[in-house]
From TrEMBL:
The lineage of its organism: Bacteria, Bacillati, Bacillota, Bacilli, Bacillales. GO terms for molecular function: ATP binding; dTMP kinase activity. It comes from the Bacteria. It comes from Saccharococcus thermophilus. Gene3D superfamilies: P-loop containing nucleotide triphosphate hydrolases. This is Thymidylate kinase.
C-alpha cells in the first residue's frame, strides 16, 4: 500500500523540527514506517544547493535566483527521496515544502505568490502533500526560541529584519485560507506537549480516515 506525504510549515522557531522528531517516534511506536526529511536539502544535490542559498557571504543573491534554486533543490529531493519513500509505503514527514517558497519568496520578498507557484508547478508536477500542518506563532516568539538554543547555526535568512518575519506569518495565514482543504493550522505558541498532542491528533485522523 502506498504511504503518505505530509509537510510541516511555519516561521523559524515555530517548532517544526521538534514536532517532526516527536511525531516520527510516535508513529514508529504505532508500527508505521516513517521517513523524515527537510527542505532545502534531503539529498546530495539538494544539500549542495542549500549551502549556496544559505551561505551568509552570498549577499548579492537575486530573489529570482533564490526562488529557482529552491525549486531546483525541491525537484531533486522529491524525485530521489520523497516519491520513492511514499511508493514504498512510508509516511514521509517533510520539514518545509512548496508553501515555504510561496510565502518567503512569493509573498515576503514580493516576487508574487502565483509566479512562484508557477515555477514550482514545473518542479513538482502536481505532487503536493496530502496534508500540510502550519505551526502558527508570533515570529518574535519563534526567534526568541531560536536565540535560546545556541547550538543552532544562524543562517542568512535568520538575519532578516523582524518586519520580514511578520510578512512571512501574514503570508502563511493567507495561504492557509487559500488551500484550506490541505493546510491545517495549529497554535504553536502553546507548550511542546500541547502542540504535539494537536499535531498527532490531526495526523492520525488523516491516516485513519484514508
Ligand atoms: N512548543 C514549544 N514551546 C517552547 N519551545 C519550543 C516549542 N517547540 C519547540 N521549542 C524550542 O524552540 C526552538 C526552535 O524549535 P525548532 O523545532 O528548531 O523550530 P523550527 O524547526 O520550526 O525552526 C528549539 O530550541 C525547541 O526546543
Ligand atoms: C524551503 C524553503 C525555505 N526557505 C527559508 C526558510 C528558512 O528561513 C530557511 C531554511 O533554513 P532552515 O535552517 O531549514 O530553517 P528552519 O529550521 O527554520 O526550517 O530557508 C525559503 O525561503 N524558501 C523555501 O522554499
Amino acid at each position: 500500500m502506498k504511504g503518505y506525504f505530509f509537510s510541516f510549515e511555519g516561521p523559524d522557531g515555530a517548532g517544526k523540527t521538534t514536532m517532526i522528531a516527536k511525531l516520527e517516534t510516535f508513529l514508529r511506536e504505532k508500527g508505521f514506517a516513517v521517513v523524515s526529511t527537510r527542505e532545502p536539502g534531503g539529498v546530495r544535490i539538494a544539500e549542495a544547493i542549500r549551502s549556496i542559498i544559505l551561505n551568509p557571504d552570498h549577499t548579492e543573491m537575486d530573489g529570482r535566483t533564490e526562488a529557482l534554486l529552491y525549486a531546483a533543490a525541491r525537484r531533486q529531493h522529491l524525485l530521489e527521496k520523497i516519491i520513492p519513500a511514499v511508493e514504498a509505503g512510508n509516511i514521509v514527514l517533510c520539514d518545509r515544502f512548496v508553501d515555504s517558497s510561496l510565502v518567503y519568496q512569493g509573498f515576503a520578498r514580493g516576487l508574487g505568490v502565483d509566479e512562484i507557484l508557477q515555477i514550482n508547478q514545473f518542479a513538482i508536477d502536481g505532487y503536493f502533500p496530502s496534508l500540510t500542518i502550519y505551526f502558527d506563532i508570533d515570529p518574535k516568539m519563534g526567534l526568541e526560541r531560536i536565540q535560546k538554543n545556541k547550538q543552532r547555526e544562524i543562517n542568512r535568512l535568520d538575519m532578516e529584519s523582524l518586519s520580514f518575519h511578520y510578512k512571512v506569518r501574514e503570508g502563511y495565514l493567507k495561504l492557509a485560507k487559500r488551500f484550506a482543504e490541505r493546510i491545517v493550522t495549529i497554535d504553536a505558541s502553546k507548550s511542546p506537549d500541547e502542540v504535539f498532542a494537536m499535531t498527532a491528533a490531526v495526523v492520525m485522523k488523516r491516516i485513519e480516515g484514508r
